[in-house]
Amino acid sequence: MEPYTPHGRSGVRKKNLTLSTKEYNKVTGTIASVRRTRQYLEDGAVEPSNDFVPSLRGSLGRDTEPSFIAETSFVRAPLNSRVVSGSSGPRDRHKGKGRAKDSLDGVPVETQEALILEDILFVLMGIEGTHIVYHPDYSAEDDDPLQGVRYVVSPSLDASLRDLVERILPLATYYTAITAFIEQRSHLDFGLVNHALCAAMRDMLKDYQVLLSQLEHAFATSPQFTLQKLWFYVHPTLHTLSLLYLLITELATADDPSATLSDSESASSDAEEDARNEALGLGGANLKAVLSEINKGSRLGMDGGASGIPVKGGEVLAILHERMQNMSGDPAARALYGVLMRAAGKPYVEMVQLWIRTGRLVDPYEELCIKESKFIDRGTLDVDYTDEYWERRYTLRDGTVPGGSSKRHQTGVPPPRTVGGHLPGGACVPPMLERWKSKMLLAGKYLNVIQECGIEIRRAAADEGEEDLSLQDDKFFKSIDDAYAHANKTLLELLLRDQQLIPRLRSLKRFFFLSQSSFLTHLLDLSHSELRKSAKSASLVKLQSLLDLALNTDIQGEDAMFREDLRVTMASSGLYEWLLKVVSVSGVLGGEEGETADGHVHEETKKEREKEKDDKKQILAIDALTLDYTVKFPLSLVISRKTILRYQLIFRFLLHLKHVEQSLSSMWIEHKTTPWRAPTHPPGAAAPSPADWQTDFQNWRKRVFLLRARMLAFVQQILAFATFEVLEPNWRKLEGKLEAGKVETVDQLLRDHVDFLDTCLKECMLTSSKLLKAYSKLIVTCSTFALYTSSFTKSASQALALAAADAADGDKAMAKRWDFLSKFETNFNHWFKVHLDCVQFYASSENVSLLPLVVRLNTIKSTS
């Protein structure tokens, strides 16, 4: 072993460094003189002189080196020399700094370089040096740790050395800032993506620390190691850490950019606040320390600023992606950010893979772009008229709706950041997943429905290559496509084959659209007396038993399987009043005349409410009668409460037509009786003159016949148009799509089903307020006219009795009859013309499907 080799180190290192004994002694002597000079300065010794250095070097010829005997740990653990022993107490930092700065004035450049080399190695580890100290304005308690520690160099340092040191010092600032970022973002509240990002940064800092260890070793062993060589070795690392520093600065400022503004605003009133706090007994260092911690927590994004959401999840990945795109011209930056993106995106990819493969959403920190509303469960399907279970159980956090719709769910969507414009946290979808977010949502949603049915999801295990997917890997996007196709195919087969969706829809068509509706005619005949009561007085139990009786006698085949799911209910309001209320809602709160018309609107609202109360008391059972249909999950996704409501509207529309048709047909049968057919004068008698009231009575009877025939023709034409021109063709289109397999996705199936019902409602004139108003007036006129059948018959019998008695007061009675009839004729003619004009207008502008109805209505002749 060489005489001056420290214990525990072999001579191989000396051989590798190709140092002679003389050079080796020179290095160790320089280090010893530096250490001893510092000891003298700290103990208050005299200023160093040039004569002192040779005296130290002269002692190197001996076999034992005093510096290494006194400080054996210096070579093995250099940082131990900076640790203050517990017995010596804290060092007077300011006193030591001042003396150290002054001491460099007379120190040779070689010694200054050795001193500053040792100092800068400590500073690069975040430890304050002797000649490189914290900036005077820096405060560890008040300054943001994510800004890094700022250092200044002793002004007495040689200018050439100071220039190099100031180039290297930003590395220490970057290192301290990144270390603080890693420490703070490793908190649980910042989520798995931030944890993975911090782990990747920590690995990079390990390489940085290895580099510092190698530099310290070179400093301790090589006399050729200079400040210039140190700059040469750390220059590439400076660029790397600067890129990391820019990234963490952007992540930190995205949390709450108003934090620095609030700090600066509060700084101006510090003196006044201190005085107030002292007067209230709230002053003191402890309170200030607590407030400082709160301020630091707000700057870290623990309170998330205005939005309350820290930067995490998809937002971190979006910022990383943007930086990678903006720095694409720098290969080193692109490579560095690519490594960080792969590492930070790994937990995100794992959450996505678990969701699209099993239908389970495991997102404890709300980082994924998909969220679950746990309060919405399968139980809501029985009473849900908005399809919340399907549409809002699992949704995208940014509010977008899958299927290319421009509609957004604004409820629960946080506002975007003021800096960058990103949605906060998991609501921010990484740019590379923007095109795939809908498929991701639907793939997991489909599998979740299958799981809710109690069916085990069997999926082949992932390949070894798929276990290491990243957000920028084409295999990852292919896996989303494959998972979406698999989930979609599985759920479609479940609905169409296992759950018998098409037979279910056929039964709905027969029950609600009245195809093969002999059961309804039978039901109306059986429940005639019950349906004449008010809606509150009618017995639902009796009506349900009569419906079961009608179904048992008329329904066969597939419909017999589902008749137990059909039940009678009573609506709370009339059909046309409810539809007019729905289609008249404009959604404008105020508008141009909102300020001046507020009082008028409130008055109208009160009148409408009063009218509704009266209508509820007077509504008949026949006007409120409707059917309901019960299905189980998962068919309740397709045949939901929202679609059942549409079926019920069409059923009530057709039921009312059927009922009015039946009433007018009964009136036609009534018109075959004696009062309507008997002649007004006895056989063989002379015919009455044209001016006689008996002739007038015969004309009156003909006008009643004609009005009844026109009303019946109108009702039959509307009924024929609705069934043969609207419902049947649209149903054939939907059935053809389902049977031919043209429906490729479950969402398309849901959309096609709702579109089919919406089309039927529109073509049946149930979505236009003008058409509804005219049609409702017409149909009410017809039903009211049919209610007066017995009155007309009684009046005709009285006229025949007067004619037989040859009474003279027949003229007055005929005038009353004509007046009563003319009211019906005038009302019917007026609204018939209005309705025909509206139908012609909409047929030529919006709804071409109404053209056949125009032809049908033109066949009904009007009386002049």
From TrEMBL:
* Keyword Cytoplasm in record: yes
Region span, Disordered:
81-105, 400-421, 594-613
Which stretches are transmembrane? none
Q: Which segments show compositional bias classed as Basic and acidic residues?
A: 597-613
One Pfam annotation, family name? GCP_N_terminal
* Entry's localization field: Cytoplasm, Cytoskeleton, Microtubule organizing center
Domain (Gamma tubulin complex component protein N-terminal): residue spans on this chain = 117-496
Keywords tagged on the record? Cytoplasm, Cytoskeleton, Microtubule
Q: Report the principal subcellular site.
A: cytoplasm
Put simply, this protein is called: Spindle pole body component
Q: Which organism is it from?
A: Rhodofomes roseus
